[in-house]
Design goal:
Layout (H helix, E strand, L loop, with lengths): L4 H11 L17 E4 L2 E5 L12 H14 L7 H5 L2 H14 L3 E5 L2 H12 L6 E5 L4 H8 L4 E5 L4 H11 L5 E6 L11 H10 L3 E5 L22 E5 L9 E5 L1 H10 L1 H4 L6 H16 L1 H17 L13 E7 L1 H13 L2 E2 L2 E2 L9 E6 L6 H15 L1
Parallel strand pairs: 2-11, 4-5, 4-6, 6-7, 7-8
Antiparallel strand pairs: 1-2, 3-9, 8-9, 10-13, 12-13
Helix pairs in contact: 2-11, 4-11, 5-6, 12-14
This protein binds pyridoxal-5'-phosphate (PLP).
Pyridoxal-5'-phosphate (PLP) binds next to helix 5.
């Protein structure tokens, strides 16, 4: 049989309680409700942290963008796909994060592959990645020609040792997530900035889970520190789709000329770029959304039974580590019966024996939702 690993691997996945399946959400409302197979659930697994998805003003801007520029860019940026909507969005992002240049990508995954592959041109480049970095950073780094080192999670000492021991090459890039996607904890951004400066390295942060949520205008890690290169997806707190990278003029010029992911890919929808401008305007001015996440998160921590430990975080993400895959799945199923949608996160997304319930608390949840969630989790785990 051709490619017989296909059947074999799926059978093995099922046996390990790691089997994954698509479920279709048929909800049509703007709330955090999802509807699966006709049953409604409170959604605590979404990345719509600020509750901006389906916002009436963003939807209106999407329609306006479609009317002005069309839904499709109809070409890669360097051919004819780069519209005024893209240029204006890039300018907004540069101003928001106080950075010289911005580039748009169809997804955060593509942006990460693009950056690592562009900078990892040859073996003179050295990448230092936090061990908990996202799959797309790891793939980007290892598929490049650079030498890749992994430092222990948030361990600045280990990073410094690796940096001082491995090379004198000037092409060093330190890479981390700003807020870690599966734990919710923040990187030590200021310390990373200091190490980068003292070791003449560049600092790259994947701010997918920080932008929108952290900072008084949702600037993410750039609120605290001067980050050489930042990537953020627009498919989470910003509530649209695609991703952006901010960087220096020189790197921008280099990416436009040499990044295969940028050059050989259709530019993002100009209608979505236009809608994203409106979304960023709301992200900046509606501080109440960040305050609500913070208030509800504090309440959640207080209501959980004392034996349930949460990783301390300023973000929307709250991880309850369960350990075993089967137990995590069983708990997720128990919660579903109570009308709560909380996906069990299992290896290889997280390390073996660290399967977890990853709770996301969003600005469109309310006190009643959080009380109900905590009550159901306490009952399920006790
Ligand atoms: C930390 C991180 N980086 C990158 C991505 C990929 O972004 P996108 O969904 O836009 O491809 C994700 C998840 O989606 C993520 O959690």
């Amino acid at each position: 049989m051709n490619f017989d690993f296909i059947q074999h691997d799926v059978i093995e996945q099922k046996a390990k309680s790691r089997y994954r399946q698509l479920v279709c959400n048929s909800a049509t409302s703007q709330s955090n409700e999802i509807v699966i197979n006709g049953k409604s659930y409170l959604n605590f697994s979404s990345n719509d942290y600020l509750g901006l998805n389906n916002h009436i003003e963003i939807n209106k801007a999407l329609q306006e963008g479609a009317d002005k520029f069309g839904v499709c860019s109809s070409s890669s940026s360097l051919v004819t796909g780069y519209h005024y909507a893209h240029q204006a969005l890039e300018a907004d992002i540069c101003q928001w994060l106080n950075k010289p240049k911005c580039l748009l990508f169809s997804s955060g995954f593509a942006a990460n592959l693009a950056l690592f592959q562009a900078l990892g041109k040859n073996e003179e480049s050295y990448f230092y990645l936090d061990k908990l970095s996202h799959a797309s950073m790891i793939d980007g780094a290892y598929h490049s020609k650079a030498k890749v080192k992994r430092f222990n999670h948030n361990n600045i000492e280990h990073l410094t040792t690796l940096l001082t021991k491995t090379t004198k090459s000037p092409n060093k890039l330190i890479a981390s997530e700003g807020v870690f996607s599966m734990d919710g904890c923040q990187a030590k951004v200021l310390e990373l900035e200091q190490v980068a400066k003292s070791q003449q390295a560049w600092l790259y942060l994947d701010d997918a889970h920080s932008v929108g949520v952290i900072g008084d205008e949702g600037q993410g890690s750039n609120y605290f520190a001067d980050i050489d290169i930042t990537m953020a997806t627009m498919g989470k707190a910003i509530g649209t789709s695609g991703a952006f990278l901010t960087c220096s003029e020189d790197l921008h010029e280099y990416m436009v000329n040499f990044s295969r992911h940028y050059i050989y890919s259709t530019a993002i929808s100009p209608a979505i770029a236009w809608a994203t401008r409106k979304s960023i305007e709301l992200v900046k001015k509606e501080q109440w959304r960040r305050e609500k996440i913070s208030e509800l998160s504090t309440l959640f921590g207080k209501l959980l039974a004392p034996e349930i430990e949460l990783v301390s975080t300023e973000s929307s993400i709250h991880a309850i580590i369960i350990g075993d895959e089967k137990k995590a799945l069983m708990l997720s199923d128990k919660l579903k019966k109570q009308g709560i949608w909380l996906t069990a996160i299992r290896p290889p997304t997280v390390a073996v024996n660290s399967s977890r319930l990853r709770v996301t608390i969003c600005a469109n949840h309310n006190v009643k939702d959080i009380k109900y969630l905590a009550e159901c989790i306490n009952k399920a785990i006790a």
